[in-house]
Automatic annotation (TrEMBL):
Homodimer. SUPFAM superfamilies: Nucleoside phosphorylase/phosphoribosyltransferase catalytic domain, Nucleoside phosphorylase/phosphoribosyltransferase N-terminal domain, Pyrimidine nucleoside phosphorylase C-terminal domain. One of its GO terms (molecular function) is thymidine phosphorylase activity. It comes from Amycolatopsis magusensis. Its EC number is 2.4.2.4. This is Thymidine phosphorylase. It holds the Pfam family Glycos_trans_3N. Belongs to the thymidine/pyrimidine-nucleoside phosphorylase family.
């Protein structure tokens, strides 16, 4: 035991390794001491693996989350509007934050969306918004508070002071095969969201090939853990379990997803994107005490689009500027007549990433114009030679790998598949 420390890391690790329950004091200490550098990386690796293998009960998870929140600053963003936020566990073509934040703001709430960048096959909200000329992701806390009061919606980079323990632990989990643990995922997500200071939170837990949680059972387990943490910390929390077996909407990438979001805000856009945006908005408004406002009517009125323009301008972006266009476009055609029965979200997400829309390492740049347009969605009838996917990139050398990923990414059959709902379950 280091001088002055109440515990020895090795005892905490041994206790979890042997299937024991960590005490509140052990959790507070180990998370804090890891953030201070007193618990070494190899010790936290061993503890993360012990938690991965042995799990934590709901009390341990809530306390672990609290310790991660206490490792940094807890913002207080309360102004004259009720605050409510949304978090998605990540999906392919999941641009919902873009239309949702201004929509909920136009309905009277304040939406502080402190977001991250994309890593792997699911895109990052900030990467998408950065395809808008001039738009700036980094805001000071004062700017966030002012924009929330004046516009009602802020989507910006999370400050490094929010849950620094999670930042450190997530990087460690990434290289020690300890990411896919429900207690660790749930506490990681909720520590950042609770530290952001929003009074209400709606979680969009995705399930299917393009999601973190491949099965409905896993998604439900994660959703239950997330809602329980919210309740334990006094944050009104609802979780929706939503479909991610096929890409959301038709656009997957950066600028293409911004363009599709603007279509939605202008009253058009793909039906699944509109449906999910309105469903999430309803839940957010209910938590904010604005359940009598109809988000579908506000979307149709054009007020959400006006709020979007103000939100983009407030961060130095030009909402009317043309979005970057790709240098190369390649079309994948239907090989035969038939009805598109499946279009695999994971394959499309990985292909868009390979085209340059995503990054392999945190420090890599992304291409604003890279991505994929899905010309057909499951249920659409196609003739041989019709376009199915439109690949966009500035680096044509990326095309063979993307095309390889897309082999077998869709299937055609004689008749239409049964329609799948977007929202599969709601947990309150
Ligand atoms: N997203 C997070 O923020 N944390 C995780 O552990 C997994 C996904």
């Amino acid at each position: 035991m280091s001088a002055g420390e109440p515990f020895a890391a090795v005892d905490v690790i041994r206790s979890k390794r042997d299937g024991g329950r960590l005490s509140d004091e052990q959790i507070d200490w180990v998370v804090g001491a890891y953030t201070r550098g007193v618990v070494a990386e190899e010790q936290m690796s061993a503890l993360a693996m012990a938690i991965f293998l042995r799990g934590m009960d709901s009390g341990e998870i809530a306390r672990w989350t609290g310790a991660m929140i206490d490792s940094g600053e807890r913002l207080s963003l309360h102004g004259s509007r009720p605050t409510v936020d949304k978090h998605s566990t990540g999906g392919v073509g999941d641009k919902i934050t873009l239309p949702l934040a201004p929509l909920v703001a136009a309905c009277g709430a304040a939406v502080p969306q402190l977001s991250g960048r994309g890593l792997g096959h699911t895109g990052g909200t900030l990467d998408k918004l950065e395809s808008i000329p001039g738009w700036r992701a980094a805001l000071s806390t004062e700017e966030i508070v002012r924009q929330l009061e004046e516009v009602g919606a802020v989507v910006c980079a999370a400050t490094p002071t929010l849950a620094p323990a999670d930042r450190k632990l997530y990087a460690l989990r990434d290289v020690t095969a300890t990411v896919e643990s429900i207690p660790l995922i749930a506490s990681s997500i909720m520590s950042k969201k609770i530290a952001e200071g929003s009074a209400g939170l709606v979680l969009d837990v995705k399930t299917g090939s393009g999601a973190f949680m491949k099965t409905r059972e896993q998604a439900k387990e994660l959703a239950e853990a997330l809602v329980a943490i919210g309740k334990a910390h006094g944050v009104a929390t609802t979780a929706l379990i939503t479909e991610m077996g096929t890409p959301l909407g038709r656009a997957v990438g950066n600028a293409v997803e911004v363009a599709e979001s603007v279509e939605v805000l202008r009253g058009g856009g793909p039906a699944d994107v509109v449906e999910l945006t309105v469903a999430l908005a309803r839940e957010m408004l209910a938590l904010a005490g604005l359940g009598s406002v109809d988000p579908a009517a506000v979307l149709a009125s054009g007020e959400a689009y006006e709020t979007w323009c103000r939100m983009i301008r407030a961060q130095d972006g030009d909402p009317e500027a043309p979005l970057p266009a790709p240098k190369h476009v390649h079309i994948v055609e239907a090989p035969a007549d038939g009805v598109l029965s499946t279009l695999d979200a994971y394959a499309v997400g990985v292909a868009a990433w390979r085209l340059g829309a995503g990054r392999a390492r945190k420090e890599d740049p992304v291409q604003a114009a890279a991505g994929i347009l899905c010309h057909a969605k499951p249920g659409d009838r196609l003739s041989a030679g019709d376009p199915v996917l439109e690949l966009h990139t500035d680096t044509p050398e990326a095309l063979p790998a993307a095309l390889h990923t897309l082999e077998n990414s869709f299937t055609l059959q004689d008749s239409a598949p049964p329609a799948t709902p977007v929202v599969l379950d709601v947990l309150r």
